[in-house]
Amino acid sequence: MYGLGLLKGLIVTMKNLISPGRMFTIHQYPDRKISPLGLSKLEGKNVISWGINNPVKFLKSLLGLISVPDKIAQSPRFRGQEFTWYEQRCTGCASCAKYCPLGIIKIVTSPSGKAVPEGQKYAIDVFDIDIGRCMFCGLCVEACPYDALHMGSGFEEGTYQRKDLVINVDRLKSAPKKPSTWFRPQLEELGYDPDSGDEITWDQIGRHERPSLSDQEDKWVKR
Amino acid sequence: MSIRTEPVTINLGPQHPSTHGVFRLRVTFDGETVVDVDPVFGYMHRGTEKLAETRSYVQIVTLTDRLDWVSSMSNNLAYVRAVEALCEIEVPQRAQFLRVIAAELQRIASHLMATGFLVNDMGAFATPLMYCFRERERILDLFEILCGARITLSYMRPGGVFQDAPKAFWDNLDALMKEMPIYIDELESLVTTNEIVLARSKNVGVLTAEQSINGSLSGPMLRASSVDWDIRKSNPYEIYDKLNFEVPIGKNGDVFDRYLVRIKEMRESLKIIGQCVDMISEGPVRADVPYNIRPPAGDIYSSIEAPKGELGFYLVSDQSISPYRCKIRSPSFMNLSLLREMLVGWKMSDLIVILGSVDFVMGEVDR
Question: Which secondary-structure segment (H or E) carries A123?
Fold first, then answer.
């Protein structure tokens, strides 16, 4: 019969319209409107008792006047903006700058005056990452031999001017230390999730223990 | 009374919603019938091949993401396979399985997008397209768990993949494997038997087997014209020779057959992923390859079956850290070579449908 296929299609669209598992979820970003049911759930209370105690809030949310910040779930490996950098781990070797396909990392170092046994430690004067040209491939993170540079986990870094997109060393120092677990298996072993977890310090993040002085002598000085 | 008519040449594109990118087609119409077509490429030329000559072998992986941005995994796979063949790198077994899983997921995502836009071009405005995108979103979420990005993935490296898949990936993959056949069934019941779709696509834009072989087509375009050619079968790479799957073949080589071949390929891809999940074993995922690779002097051509057809990389090495030449044989570009044979004689509205059935991405055509 002609038109049977059209009817079949209409059944499919109707199913998608009404069945709860197949409906389109619309994310109202960054704030979402919330119903009384959701709001009472958020405060951990029964909706009826909560509604009696907060009648104004109840009515307002019923009318769709109350909104709460919405957060879309992101995976721990998400390669985000705002790199996480640990000053204590960085030696200024500039591996990241060398391996960046676009050459957007600029590092200027000077001898810090204090010679340590394991290589020379340099003071980092300039560490500029031009986020405006970054494509978040993560090769700089992969190249870092001391686990000092990590991908960040945030993404809401809009600015009004292009020059504000250049992350300098001060911003890197003050950025929230919530690294992505991208190419950091040790963080995944810890079960770290930058989305929900706390900030993580430099001594928790290494791939291996710092060698003791006698170890260093055996391995590098006496050789 | 006779009306004096004359052919009119108009530009379709470069900014046109149904050309799927900045693709310009100079079409000569006689009334509403296409008399001649003249495709103009190059609006999206980004010089990928030239850029590759100034980058190291690992850095080029990031360039390949941007060739065909709806199937980045397949581009990564094609490129890293070329490098591995050039350096004769042995890839660990687990890495090969992971790559095949990722590439087949990408094939489903790409075909979903192709089907959605094809039906969109036929006039089913946005509804089937949104369904396809909702399903594709699940696969993109999987990619985010796997490698932290959704489109520009950069997951593979010469010698394997950059990191093993986390546990959440396998859980989500299992859930997807259960639901995806239902999604595809639903899409088929919405589209395949629809009378409007059949009227718009049956016997439209027909290519015979001989024509498509002479035009060096590949992928679903070629298989719709009843040519049994799939590199996964004819020249198995990775672990495809251990897997049990079929290559769907069309009959007439029209728009409808291309759509049907893509739907069937999605089902076969699901079969392949299911087998891979069963067969995968523990082990390393990355061979011991230095970060800066210096391959021996020589050249190599290596190709894989990407969602859109045969994607090949021709690399010439002069023992330096970057290739001397990197030629990309992109399926979208080759599949557009028979535009005149397909389009001439059809009406304006059929032109849009036939263009949609080719499933090209301009990033790959212009490179």
Answer: strand A120-130
How far lies B211's CA from each of A103, B52, B215, B262, B357, in Å?
A: 46, 34, 6, 20, 17
* Complex ipTM more than 0.90, yes or no: no
Q: Does A17 touch chain B (CB under 8 A)?
A: no
Name the minimum distance, in Å, from the CA of B77 to any CA of chain A: 16
- The string of DSSP letters for B106-151 reads HHHHHHHHHHHHHHHHHT--SHHHHHHHHHHHHHHHHHHHHHS-SS
CA–CA min distance B8, chain A (Å): 36
Pairing of strands B325-329, A80-85: unpaired
A192 in B contact zone (CB under 8 Å): no
CB-closest option in A6, A16, A78 to B131: A16
Chain centroid to CA B20: 14
A197 lies within 8 A of chain B by CB: no
Q: Are A142 and B154 an interchain contact pair (Cβ–Cβ within 8 Å)?
A: no
Query: A35: distance to nearest CA of chain B, Å?
Result: 25
The rounded average pLDDT for each run of 10 residues, N- to C-terminus, in chain A (223 residues) is: 81 84 74 80 79 81 80 83 82 85 86 54 81 87 85 83 86 85 82 80 72 72 62
H helices of A75-146, in order, are 95-99, 139-143
Cβ contacts of B121-124, under 8 Å, gap ≥ 24: B121/B18, B121/B352, B121/B353, B121/B355, B121/B356, B122/B196, B122/B197, B122/B200, B122/B201, B122/B353, B122/B356, B123/B196, B123/B200, B124/B191, B124/B194, B124/B196, B124/B197
Q: Are residues A101 and B130, on separate chains, in Cβ contact within 8 Å?
A: no
- What are the backbone angles phi and psi of residue B318, rounded to the nearest 5°? -120, 35
Report the alpha-carbon distance of residue A51 to residue B366 in Å, rounded: 61
Name the residue among A8, A77, A151 with its Cβ closest to that of B193: A8
Cβ distance of A4 and B146 shorter than 8 Å: no
Residue from A24, A137, A140, A155 whose CB has the most chain B CBs within 10 Å, to mutate:
A137
How far does Cα B227 stand from its chain's mean position? 18
Name the percent of chain B lying above pLDDT 90. 19
